[in-house]
Amino acid sequence: MIPPTSPSRSSDARRVRALVTLGDSTTVGLGDPLPGGGWRGFPSLLRDALGGPAEVALTNLSRSGARMACVRREQLPGALAAHPEVAVLCVGMNDTLRSDFDPVVLRGDCAATVSALRAAGAHVLMLRFHDHTRVFWLPAPLRRALRRRIDALNTVTDVIAAGDPHGIGVLDLHLIPGGYERATWSVDRLHPSERGHRMLAAGFATLLAGAGFAVPQPVSLQCSGGRQVSAADRAAWLIVKGVPWLVRRGRDLGPVILEGLVTELVRGTPASG
């Protein structure tokens, strides 16, 4: 369990007045529903830690299904127009789940996005992704294929961050205590639960405090203000969205599974997961 973020109010700490978040459905806030509808998610929780809506302008440009190229093409212009002190980039998992996954192309889009944000003066926060197969069941061949792709995605992050270690902070989800616990994930096991979103916000806030930014309020890991997900909600998700999603991804990644099986047979790799 990550401890709640310690407030940082040092007189020489830099205040964040404009926060931009770019990415996919996790950045939209999926998994952290609000009682009146819609989503909250880590962007709002991080904004509150940095001073709240009265002091920090949050521009959340994310959309469900976005890939790295979408962020560069569709979200980056709006991010630059917001003149952020801090920009959070949370994207890439949708790329790993598509049959046209190309780490070289992904690296080009990611590098261009981060370079543009840094050139505009933003401190950039990125993610190293966890082993998603530890929280979401997949058939063994698909599990192995996804692990390889997540490794490739994390390598892209590592290379880009290493080129600007003072201007880029990286939150490693694999190392967050409690990150693989069931309560950290929503019913779909693809998006963080409210608790998971709070852990993300706390992790990002800690990185910002370490980089010299003011974090006036701690990020509490105590769940509050969200809508409790019921057993009926879980059943509805499984029927309406869960099974259709698995069918779509199975079709899309069928060639990937076949290629992985052939590679393993050639190399003599055991077929077990």
UniProtKB/TrEMBL annotation:
<keyword id="KW-0378">Hydrolase</keyword>
<protein>
    <submittedName>
        <fullName>SGNH/GDSL hydrolase family protein</fullName>
    </submittedName>
</protein>
<dbReference type="InterPro" id="IPR036514">
    <property type="entry name" value="SGNH_hydro_sf"/>
</dbReference>
<feature type="domain" description="SGNH hydrolase-type esterase">
    <location>
        <begin position="22"/>
        <end position="198"/>
    </location>
</feature>
<dbReference type="InterPro" id="IPR013830">
    <property type="entry name" value="SGNH_hydro"/>
</dbReference>
<dbReference type="Pfam" id="PF13472">
    <property type="entry name" value="Lipase_GDSL_2"/>
</dbReference>
<dbReference type="GO" id="GO:0016787">
    <property type="term" value="F:hydrolase activity"/>
</dbReference>
<dbReference type="InterPro" id="IPR051532">
    <property type="entry name" value="Ester_Hydrolysis_Enzymes"/>
</dbReference>
